[in-house]
Amino acid sequence: MLRSARLTALVLVASLGLGACSASDGDDGASGGTVTVFAAASLKESFTELGERFEEEHPGIEVTFNFNGSDSLAAGIVGGAPADVFAAASPSTMARVTDEKLTADAPVTFARNRLAIATAAGNPHGIGSLEDLAAPGLQVVLCDATVPCGAAARKALAAAGTDVVPASYEQDVKSALTKVRLGEADAAVVYRTDVRAAGATVEGVDFPEAAQAVNDYPIARLENASDAPAADAFVAFVTSPEGRKVLGKAGFLAP
């Protein structure tokens, strides 16, 4: 009986120890599954890196992304598209989702972004300000007014007292930048982060009115997330010091 009691005690101690190890190894409650993230197009480079780092720190969890214009993503979520996390390029587009009570918690601002003018490499037209975009014959593209970068561009142009008739309106910031990269436009008003991501293929021109049109980027886990612990863990990772370091490297401003 004594031997049996000792064996029972050893099994109990081992069981408690194993439970403690499990708790410490998975403090955020995320252990496996897939996290589907709907993210603004301007987050593509930084979130791709964050996703890779997150997967390394959370073995067994896969992160998949849908990068697009924030308004299109919000419309998809409201329409029932399966997503676990939404990262928007403006509070107004996030509000389309929160107004429908589709987020689990109040969104958190994790970054900020400001505009710049993207021109062809070498800035052949000598563009130095928003006023220069109104020059006759200059092919300028803007994001559509419903897209955060488009709304911000209009605010900046109004601050500069400049009226620009664009050659086209694009549905996301990457599309606007691509027009310049391919030589289909002389300039575009995009985010500084996108200019940086494009490297030597374009040249960026800063302008003072950009300070009056800074966009806050909110993120939130969605109420119907298929794996709430994993989704919460991803949101926590984005807002962590490591996440902000990656975003800062991409040119985003701290919230």
UniProtKB/TrEMBL annotation:
Belongs to the bacterial solute-binding protein ModA family. The keyword Kinase does not apply. This is Molybdate ABC transporter substrate-binding protein. Coiled coil: none annotated. Pfam families: SBP_bac_11 (PF13531). InterPro entries: ModA, ModA/WtpA. The keyword Metal-binding applies. SUPFAM superfamilies: Periplasmic binding protein-like II (SSF53850). Transmembrane segments: none annotated. Keywords: Metal-binding, Signal. Residues 1-22 form the signal peptide.
